[in-house]
Please model this.
Amino acid sequence: MAYSDKVLEHYEKPRNVGTLDKDDPNVGTGLVGAPACGDVMRLQLKVSDAGIIQDARFKTFGCGSAIASSSLVTEWVKGKTLEEAGKITNVEVAKELSLPPVKIHCSVLAEDAIKAAIADFQKKRAARATPATAAAATAETVK
Amino acid sequence: MPALEAKYRALSLELHPDRQADPKARRLAVDKTATLNDGLKVLRDPVKRAFYLLKLKGVDLERDEAGEQRQMPIEFLEEVMDRREALDAVRAAKDVPRAQAMAAEVEGLKAQALEQAQKALTADAVKEATHQLGRVRYFTRFLEEVEAIEEEALAAP
Model:
């Protein structure tokens, strides 16, 4: 099976490969895997206090499509709000990279990684808030 | 296993396409023989066999969609990430003996996971079997990477 030009482009020149400090309170880390192929993908987002994604890094051990999918989403999420980033779907990723049906799961992995990173950041932020505000926030959600 | 091989031989003689004169029957015999050969491959290989048994219990790990029940624990994914990053460093350093030492450790973990999976399959513990076979899959991928490193070293000494 041949990879599309866009997959090859990202595979040969992946964007934003690397690591951010996972203990930084402004960094959310998403770690996901696909037992169907044994791939593992880590996506990290650095979020400003205003809730804008300032930086993104990834590390993926997997096939070319998995690497390209994660590379692409790191480009896409930069400058977005968490809400906007959370709306990125695997369908958009698969379309942009012209992924064949057997490689759709690679784009699913990238979507899952964004969501996991956002969830991790929000968990950190909730923990950072004073217990009183955290309790108030919980009460708010319950209502 | 000897019983399996004997049964395979008997069936393969019985289904052999050369026994069919009619072209249509011959084509059917070719198909059946291919199915028989695939079946033997699955039964002979303990890993394939375990994946197949799990599929019979309703979990197809060969399929691509990452379903809820196929989600691996985060601690395990962290372990995989650490091992793969360490292997990357070894690859950059072209340290084949170190890669092989890491492979030996992972071989052991894979064997343990397979044994646990087989026990779970016998006990009909589908969730546990899924988890253990997921581990088997990740360990297999690691070992494939080590093979690739060995090949690189042979190709460019």
Q: What stands out?
A: The longest strand of chain A covers residues 39-47.
